[in-house]
Amino acid sequence: MQDFLKMYYHIDCYLETTGYFYVGQQLYYLSRIQDPQEFFNRYHYYRYLMHQCGIRGYEIVKNIYQELLTQDYVLLLYQKDNFSREQYIHQTMVIYPFPKLKVQQIKEQWICKIDQAREKVKDYAYSFKHDQDILSLIYYYCGLAENSINILNYLLQVDNQASLPVSLSLSQPVFEYVYELLNPCSYIFSTRMRHLSCLMKSQLLTYDQLQNLLETHYFDVYEIIYFYARMLYPSYFFECLFQESLDEKIINFFISN
Question: How is the chain split into domains, by residue range?
Fold first, then answer.
């Protein structure tokens, strides 16, 4: 990818495996985009979120041909600003004008993930101690996911057409830096409660702050019940498992939790 950056952006540097890299004092992020149309739609709302937070966040860097995408890759430049966590959390509770997400659809996706995770058991069942740790984690987190689905079943018994409003949401928890939290590639269109769950699991939201949010913002009863299920559902573990990124550091993180 060093040659790629040099050819299309006239940037000569060492590229980290995470996609982040510095040129002088400026932080860049290079990412492959699976669905350009969806990304640019999401990026439009991301720009609105950054504007409402009073910060610039990331901006797309054009290549030497003044194009936003280069062979399905996008290069982003981070603009560091004074970041207010409280204002950010408040703004991420905004609902966007999209069709609601059906709870039944979420349940089916979760069941599919559990089935995929159980298939992974075959990869670790007859392996060494390190893989036995992964095997134990798969059993444990599949159990948590089943409990999450039981909560969704309760919600669907109340209303089999239950649906949830859609907003920008973190796709998974972030653990290190503000620049990871503000990266547009970290977001998807999903529910506010998925976003709150990611913030809680990232330790960016305390229980007192959560209580205040629940008291000062309108959440319907379906969202509250779903939030309980979402907090139990181990989406981050499944993501690491399917991407085969369960290195020793990540394994120890999940074991400690």
Answer: 2-82, 101-256
